[in-house]
Amino acid sequence: MGDAPFAAADCLLGGGEMGAMMRALDWSRTPVGPVASWPQSLRTAVSILLESRFPMYIAWGPQYTQFYNDGYRPVLGSTKHPAAMGLAAAATFAESWHIIGPMFDGVRQGVPVGAEDWMLPLDRHGFLEECYFTFSYSPIRDESGTVGGVLVTVTETTDRVLGERRLNTLRELSSQTNDASTAETACATAGEILANNRADIPVGLVYLLDRDGKHATLAAAAGLARGTAASPERVVLTEESGPWPLAAVASSGTAMVVEGGDGPLPRRALILPIARAGAARPAGILVAALSPRLLFDAKYRSFLELVAGQIATAIASARALQEAKARAAALAEIDHAKTAFFSNVSHEFRTPLTLLLGPAEESLARIDSLPADDVARWQLVHRNGLRLLKLVNTLLDFSRIEAGRVHASYQPTDLGMLTRELAGVFESAIERAGLRLTVAIDDIGEPVYVDRDMWEKIVLNLLSNALKFTFQGGIDVALRRRDDGVVLTVRDSGIGVTAEQLPYLFDRFHRVQGARSRTHEGTGIGLALVQELIKLHGGRVTVESVVDRGSTFTVTIPLGSAHLPAEQLAAPRDGTPTALGAAPFVEEALRWSTGASSP
Length: 599
Known about the structure:
The protein contains 15 helices and 18 strands. A six-stranded antiparallel sheet has the order 8-7-6-11-10-9, sandwiched between helices. The protein has a five-stranded antiparallel sheet with strand order 2-1-5-4-3, sandwiched between helices.
């Protein structure tokens, strides 16, 4: 005996919910007639459709009678399913038949079609919806070889297309608004970005709340002109005026969906607070019209919340920047006042100091005719007057540098000879301290443009610092040419500095606490002044140090004059001179060397 023949209705076996619907449907009332009359090609195609888990759809015959499986059912939505089963396609897709119909007709002529992320408007939830599909329309040939129907295999890509579009908007908001200098600028930029996504946000309004929370000012409008009934420029929140419930959202901090009216008002809109971290009241409010062609679901709402959040971040960043600029301006004003104070005080101190030092020097010039007690007193006055004048001049130098009033005079100089002379004047003090001084000066080969008074201060401060913290060994001074520059090194075998302290050595008024030194005198501004003077020469200074093994200061300045202000090359000096020569440095060092503790 052979196998029993298949019944015609066996093609409808399986298929889940849609299979059960097909088996229950009276097909004799449809254009394709009862199942028993179907050609084998249709039965086979329907059987494959039902057994497939991939979304599939068949439109058969001249009227394109419809068959579809469980995977395809979501494409139809609640307005088309279940009525679409067995119905002519033109009736089901009436709103888009002008697009689908010609394509089906082409397939019946044997021309398949397909596309990726193709937009097809569908009414499947009670409104014409923006939908995207990747699909293929293929011919189904019947027993005669002609095309009996159309096989549609499809994947809906609406979520992905919308997600990518929305992500691009959020990405632009993040990259283009966070550098805004003001909250208003941030909102204006956000409005321009929202205007590029009218599909998701047909109308976008950004309102900023005043600090008192009583008014909302329109900061950006996208998709709608400013100042219309739907986009008032300013809203008084305490009077609940305006077309949108801005006051309610501002006070509650909760988003609200509202229905628009006639005229320019959007049909529906989501009103969202633009939250401000740590504040009870939001920074602003976003009015986002909802697209009439999109389903307002959780993903759509989440996107708009992210838009409001990104605008909130941009506003917060802009206001933080403004506050930082205001603080910087205030600090600059304080710094300017401090600089002016130091400058004025320094000038005021210099006059009495000069008047004090004059008689002291005159008296010391007649030292042989003075009693011993008077000599000691005049020496004390002169020594401490020089110390004070040195400090005053350093403060005056700082104030001039900060105020940009430094009057340098860069002149071609035999830097080797000048450096050797400056190091030489320290030799007696260094030897008296029981230390060794080594000076190694190379032939630079050409004059070096320096301000000689400034170079003097650089070298003397570095030597003074080295002697102050060195108790055994010696101090090495070297000047060498390197590439297109000159390098000065001052190396000592002193107490050294810890790695933690190194970054702060050139900070003004910084002193290493607890460091052993020949004296506890000093203001901590010598090295800071050295750094500033070297910068004025277009150079740099670095330091290397090891505790108990010493420190090495390296000064590098460029050769030539191209890096220097042209108007200050060999310029005449202007302003009060602050160079005192080596005498105050050496005299102070000699007192350290002998261990003197008297003033």
